[in-house]
Design brief:
By secondary structure, this protein is mainly β. Helix content is 2%, strand content 22%.
């Protein structure tokens, strides 16, 4: 049992739950090109605050409810990831980054994460994004390469939102005026957009440059 390690990186090898369970004081777990990843295999580091997994084979969040202190989840290039079920049990979750998870088809449970302040979606093209209008605590939102949204009217329901980036995500009605009340909005120009990207708000925020 090791209570002196607060950060652990596992790279290019099999995910060993028994090994990780020895680090009972662990706060940050980083996985890279790791196989056999599952929250069901670990139990001891219940104080885990950050989970960062890139190029892993994690399939879902089964077992994540044990880690109620989690505040930050980054899940990138998870080609087998299918479901966020269970994420609503994380009442302290503040930041979620889902990138290039091609089998993910439903993110509706995010509406049950009231503490979530930052949501970054990249390459998430099969999910209904209208759930975002119910995530009223959001302060920062990124939709990169997420297909299309019908309009940006949902921004009017997100009173706390100050940062919004939507590069390579098409706004079908072309109306970018809802962005004008934000501190920062970023995108690429399109012919049917009624505002040029250079004329969108560009005030520096703590989220810019993510």
């Amino acid at each position: 049992m090791d209570n002196g390690v607060y950060e652990l990186e596992v790279a290019r090898r099999e995910f060993d739950g028994e090994e990780i369970n020895r680090y009972t004081a662990l706060k940050n777990l980083f996985l890279y090109e790791t196989k056999g990843v599952s929250f069901e295999k670990i139990s001891a580091p219940t104080g885990l605050k950050k989970f960062d997994a890139r190029l892993t084979d994690i399939r879902d969040f089964s077992g994540i409810e044990k880690f109620r202190e989690l505040e930050n989840i980054n899940l990138l290039y998870a080609r087998s990831f299918r479901s966020i079920s269970g994420i609503s049990q994380l009442k302290k979750l503040k930041k979620l980054w889902l990138g290039n998870c091609p089998k993910l088809t439903d993110i509706d449970e995010l509406a049950l994460c009231p503490s979530l302040k930052e949501l970054y979606l990249e390459g998430i093209k099969k999910c209904d994004l209208t759930v975002i209008e119910n995530m009223t605590g959001l302060e920062a939102l990124r939709l990169s390469d997420c297909g299309s949204v019908s309009s940006l009217k949902f921004i009017g329901k997100l009173d706390n939102l100050e940062f919004f980036s939507f590069v390579n995500t098409n706004v079908l009605d072309g109306d970018l005026r809802p962005c004008l009340r934000l501190k920062y909005a970023g995108t690429l120009d399109k012919r049917h957009y009624n505002i040029k990207s250079r004329d969108l708000p560009q005030e520096r925020t703590r989220y810019r440059g993510f």
